[in-house]
Design a protein that fits this description.
The chain is an alpha+beta fold. The chain folds into 3 domains: 16-97, no CATH class; 108-219, DNA polymerase, domain 1; 236-403, Intergrase catalytic core (hpI Integrase, Chain A, Orthogonal Bundle). The protein is 49% helix and 11% strand. The protein contains 15 helices and 9 strands. The protein has helices at residues 62-93, 99-103, 108-120, 125-142, 156-168, 186-205, 215-219, 236-244, 250-262, 266-270, 303-308, 328-342, 352-363, 368-375, 380-404, and strands spanning 16-22, 28-36, 39-44, 54-55, 170-172, 181-183, 277-280, 283-289, 296-300. Strand 2 and strand 3 form a beta hairpin. Helix 14 (368-375) packs across helix 15. The longest helix is centred in the first third of the chain and has 32 residues, at 62-93. It is globular.
Amino acid sequence: MARTKKKTSPKVKQLVRIRFKELANGERSIYLDLYKDGKRAYEFLKDENGRPLRLLVETGTPDEVKAIKERNHKTLLQAESLRVAREKEVVELGKVETGVTKLGKMLLKDWIEQYKGLTSTVSSVSKVKQISTVVFHLKNWLGSKFDRVQMQEADTDFCRAFLKHLHGYSWKGIVAHPDKVYTLSDNSYYHIFITLRHCFDRAVREGIITVNPTDRMKETGELPKRPDVQRGFLTASEVSMLIKTECRNDTIKRAFLFGCFTGLRVSDLSDLRWEDIKQDGQDLRLQVVMQKTKSPLYMKLNRQAVQSLPDRGAAAGTDRVFSPLPTLSTIERILRQWGKDAGVEKHFTFHTSRHTFGTLTLNAGADLYTVSKLMGHKNLQTTQIYAELLNQTRDDAVDRLSDIFSEVGS
């Protein structure tokens, strides 16, 4: 006797689905994929405060990972609640809103201006200036057409053509060298295009467009690669030589050495106030928010860092610690002479002080995660560079030892 097939309930097709978009920092934004009567739209989810819903990267200490997992679980529950509510609206209304498509008609120049305003509240001055550089090159490439390009027209082919333009961009020299032809450095070429990519990423999160047109270029390996930047650093003995040598600008000397012992960037040192240095029992602690990454930093000042501080005198809490610092070009010129007087043969810049802090702290036995937090890095891979610098330095030292005994027979 043939067995009767068990009746199964037909699957109910979801009209609204939860989707995820991988972000550059490893986090995932959450959006809804709506489909009804042949129409599709996308909506990125936000919490009650208007901030995008995201799943955080589950890294860190065991306790930190546990806390992040709990937070991500609550975020998913919130996303599912929003999905159910939105699907109910789709069923009741019998249609999918096409707001995303309409927003795609927004002019590219208007969105970039809006993006610049959004970025200026959370990013460094240099990043905001980079957006202006992108606009300069878009105008140079498109001419008057720049004022008419819609966001939905800035597709992958548009981005490929812009990248080609950057690669071939050149200009005549300055007054001192009028016949010399200049081109963009690999570093400039990279940052201009990546800034545009970040601009499109934000447009996706804001629902202006449904997909970043440069994502396809990432899949095919067409995105410009970040150039390898040589990160020089000073050894402990070289820092000692500088400490013992007089510099014609004592403020620059103190600021540079303070950077070697704290890892602060020149932008943070220039704006450092006395109120940012807190008394904690017998210790002094630094409490600031880094300008570039907006990461908070709370660290104990070691003895060398304290000795690098100028005499406070009657300065108010709101007064700058290292004031006044001259322009960066003037600082670099004074550093060159100071290094020469100290007998430091290698070329170094003010930013070398930050690299010096990273390598010396690792060399002193601190782990990568701790150094990453002290330096305000958002990615451990950035801190890993300092460990690689140390390994190379140790390899070179062993090679030099071999050279010393090269004439001795084995």
